[in-house]
C-alpha cells in the first residue's frame, strides 16, 4: 500500500518518504486520541510504530475508541489496537502493555531509539514524565489533549521551544472511585456520586462499569462492597422500570440507610474519618421549596427527591432511559437532592440547586470528533517537526505551530482552529531551564561507590562548590546538603540509588551573585567495565534573581506553581500576535486564580 509511488510518497517526495519509512516512532496512549493517531500514523506509512498503554478496554471506551469492539473488553488496549490495524498496516507495529513511567520496562535509553514521541495521554503526571524524558534526550515530543470540544497539539523541541511545564497548568478535579462511593469529603464528591453513579445506574442507558483497577482502593472489603452495591442498584433499576412508585421508599432505605450501614461496618475506613450517619426515621410530607438559590432543609430535600423520582419513573416507559441533562428539571432535581442528602449523611456542606446545576453541568464528556481533529493535526505536525514536507525549507523550531480548537485558545474570533507559532523556553521553567545529563553507571558500581564519591565527581566536573544539596527527585528524598552529611559514607545502593533515579544537584551558597545552575542527572545503565561515566555537559552560572517587589508576588506565585493538569485554555493567544511572546503564554494571574477556585471539571474520559 505504501510505496514511493503512493499518494504519501508523491506528496512527500521519494527522499522524504524514505526517511519516513526509516523512522521508528513512539505513541503513548491507546485511548481516544491514541486510536485515531495510530490509524493516522499507519496510513502515513511510518516504518516502525511502538504503542504503549497500561490499561485494558472498558465498555465506556467503545463509543470513540474505534479500534475496539465489545469482544475486546478487558483486553490490553495497546495489543488490541495493534491487532485491529495490522492487517492494513505497512508499518512494523509493536504493542507494549505497561506504565510509561516504569523505569525498568522503559528506561531512558529505551526512549532514545525513536525519532519522535507522540503523547496521547490523559493525565498530567505521565505527560510531565514524558516531557522530562524528551528533555533529557533532546527528542521532539508531540503533546496533545482534548476535553469536550477543546483540544490542542503542542510540538516540543527541547532546547528550542517551550516545554510542557513552561506554562502553569491547573488541576482538573478527578476523584478516585472509592472517594466517590465510600468516603466523600467534599460536596463535589456527593454530586459526582449522585450524577455519575446513582442517577446513571437507575435511569441512564450507559451506566458505567468500574474495573477493580479504577477503584483507588486496595481494601478487599471495600472493593467487595462497591461491587455488591453496583449489583444491587441494578436490581433497583427494575423497581424504577416497574413504575411502582411505592418502591421509592425502598430506594431511599437502600441508598441512604443500608448502604451507609455497610460502609460503617468497614472499620478501617473510619479510623481517621468522621463516621456517616444513616438517614433513619425519614418521613415524607408535603413541604417543598422552589427557590433554586437557597439551601433546602433536609425534609425539603427528601420530599423533592421523592417527587423527582416519581416524575422520572413516569417518564421511563415512554423514554426507555433518561440521560442527565442540567436543563432537564427532573434529572437536575434528582441529582441535586440525592447529593445533598448524602452530604447531610456524611456531615458535609450542602449546596443550592442552582450551584449544583453549575457544578454537575460542567462535567466534560469526551467527543470523538475533537479527538479525530487533534490526532489529524498531531500527525500532520510530525511531518513538519521531522522536516518531511517537500518543497518546504527546514523550519526553525519556533517557526513551527501549535494548534488549538475552539475556546481552548482563548481566541476572540469565531475560528474553530487557530495555530500560533511556538514560544521560546521559559527561562523560569522548573524543567527546561535547568541543566540535564545522563550518568551511566553499572550495577556493580552502585554497590562499590559511596554517595560521597559520586557527589565529589559531580562537584569537580561541573564546578559546584562545597555547598550543594543532593536530592533523589524520584522520591523527593534529600540525600545530602550543607548540614546533612549522614548518608555520604554509604554506598549508592544503601541510599537506594538505582537505575532510573533522577538526582538533582543544587548550588546552595548564600550571598553570591551567581549560582551554578541546578542540574538533574538520570542514572542509566552501562557495561560493568565502564563503571561510572559522567556526561560532557556545561553547567552554566546563573545570576541570582533580585528579590521580588510586593506587587509582583502574585505573578511569581503563579509562575512557580506547576502542580495541576492540562487545562486547555491555559494559553492565551491573540491571533494578531504572530509570534506568541512568552509573557503572554499564561492567563493574567487574577483570571487564572478565579478559574482555579471555581474550576470543578470532572473529566469523565
Ligand atoms: N502512565 C501511563 N502509561 C501508559 N499509558 C497511559 C498512562 N497514563 C494514561 N495512559 C493511557 O492513556 C490513554 C488516554 O486515553 P483517553 O484520554 O481516551 O482515556 P481513556 O482511559 O481511554 O478513557 P476513559 O477515561 O473514558 O476510560 C488511556 O488509554 C490510558 O490508559
Ligand atoms: Zn519548560
TrEMBL record:
GO terms for cellular component: cytoplasm; SUMO activating enzyme complex. Pathway: Protein modification; protein sumoylation. Zn(2+) binds at residues 163, 166, 429, 432. GO terms for molecular function: ATP binding; metal ion binding; SUMO activating enzyme activity. ATP binds at residues 29-34, 53, 61-64, 77, 122-127. InterPro entries: ThiF/MoeB/HesA (IPR045886), ThiF_NAD_FAD-bd (IPR000594), Ub-E1_IAD_1 (IPR042449), Ub_act_enz_dom_a_sf (IPR023318), Uba2 (IPR030661), Ubiquitin-activating_enz (IPR035985), UBQ-activ_enz_E1_Cys_AS (IPR033127). The active site is at residue 178. Residues 10-431 form the THIF-type NAD/FAD binding fold domain. Keywords: ATP-binding, Metal-binding, Nucleotide-binding, Ubl conjugation pathway, Zinc. One of its GO terms (biological process) is protein sumoylation. It comes from the Eukaryota. SUPFAM superfamilies: Activating enzymes of the ubiquitin-like proteins. Belongs to the ubiquitin-activating E1 family. Heterodimer. This is Ubiquitin-activating enzyme E1-like. The lineage of its organism: Eukaryota, Fungi, Dikarya, Ascomycota, Saccharomycotina.
